[in-house]
Structures are given as structure tokens and as C-alpha cells.
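This section describes the prediction task in plain terms. A model, or a person checking by hand, is given the sequence of a single protein chain and must write out its three-dimensional structure as a string of C-alpha cells. No templates, partner chains or ligands are provided. The sample shown here is typical of the held-out split.
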Amino acid sequence: MSASVRLRREAIVQQVCDSGRVTIKDLARMLDVSEATARRDLKLLATDGQLELIYGGATLPRTVDFSFHSKVKRNIEAKRAIGRLAAQLVGDGDQIFLDSGTTCAQMIPHLRAKQNLLIIANSTRLAMDIDAPGLKIILLGGHYRPERLDTVGPLAIRTLGGLRGYLTFMGTDGLCMDFGPTASDMESAHLHALVVANARETILLADHSKFLSPSLYKIVDFKDISRIVTDRRPSDDWMVFLESEGIDVIYPDAAIESLRPPSETNANPLPDAH
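The expected answer:
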């Protein structure tokens, strides 16, 4: 497969992830190819299980794959923008928790230059990607999930029970005004609820698609969230709601006025990591 074909098909998958569905006519116009080429690309992507064909186009598969490798392909540019903004909230000497999601992973390139930064993580992928002399890592043990490249369960929770006072950066699989941030699986929701309970402050990372619908398992209430970092301004309804909850919203156009250091309160600092 040539590089141009690969990039074109990646663009198709990204478009479906962003909008939920595409038509052959729209793809042909967007990619400047013939409808026959667009139709052939959709058929091959459907054969690979990345899309599901419908009349005149394609949509996301009915069985949504929440694996790390699948999620990393979705809304990648939005996640990069969020990662860059979120990393600006981290200072030298901070103690932070990063969840195992693909949005938090986009913070890593912007954290490598930090000094004396301690990162708590339950992601083996994240731990491998962090390779800088000024960073220290506490990696939670527990039940390893190879499809998600993370650890969960009683052992991870037991370790978290001995940690306090860190700044949490947490992703979400969906948001609902009357329910809160949600996760697609029970173990992640349970673990992240404890992460938030022990944190001095929690910052939620959510691309624009997460405001459209919730997942099954509630993580925490909105009262437990101090800020949301996203890639574009949420709808007016969401902005009014988040303001009523006292939650700051950070997005590219509003970043300059919103990016101020998190609370300095840290009554129970973490021990040094070796």
C-alpha cells in the first residue's frame, strides 16, 4: 500500500469517528478522488473491521472497540490539541496522575522537558513512552489488560489508597449533565473514582465528541471536577451548565485567559519515588 493510499484511508476512518458516518459522495469531494475510489476504500476498511458499510456510505461498527489501539485512531488531532493545553497546567516539581486513556497520552511529548515531575500511572504504554531524566514514575500494579495496556483491580486500588495530594488528569468515554463523566467499563470507573477521591484537584480531558453521549458507568459527579480541557468550545447549553457547576472550560480559542496554575494546596505530599 502506498503512503498516499494509507493516509487517505486513515483520513476516512478519522472522518467516520468524528461524524459517526460518511457518504461516498462526500468522501470523493473531500479527498478529491473518484466515487469508485472512495467506494473501494470503504469496502477494504469494512473488510478490516474498521467500518460498517451502509447504503451510500459507511458508519462506525455496531460493536465499538474500546481497546487502546482502536481509540488512539479516533479524533487524533483533537486529542493532540487537548494534550498540549493540559500539559501547560503542569509545573516543575508537580505530582500528577495520568490515566491510561489515549487523550492523556498526548500530554507526554509536552511533559518531557519538565523537571522533578512525579507521574502516577496505571498505563504500561505511558510508562514506556516517558523517557526523560527529569521525570519519575509510580506505576500501579494490578490486573493487566493487554487490550488497554493498563492495570486495574484490587492491587491497583490498594496502592492508590496510600497516595494523596496529587493533581489528576483524567479522560472520559462520555459526558451527561445529569449523570457525570463516564467510562465504558466498570473496573476503570471504579479505579478512577478512587483516583479522584484522593486527588487535590481533578482536570477532565474530553474531546468534542464526548459531549454528545455518556457511556454506561459513572465515574464521579461534576462537583469533583475543577476544569475541563477540550478541543473546541462546547455548546451553549454545556457552557451554561459547566459554569453553574463552577467548572472552568479550557479550549484553544480561550486558552490564554484560562491557563492559570492549579491550586497550590497539597496537604499530603507524596513520598519521593525511586
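For orientation: Confidence is low (pLDDT under 50) at residues 64-70, 264-268.
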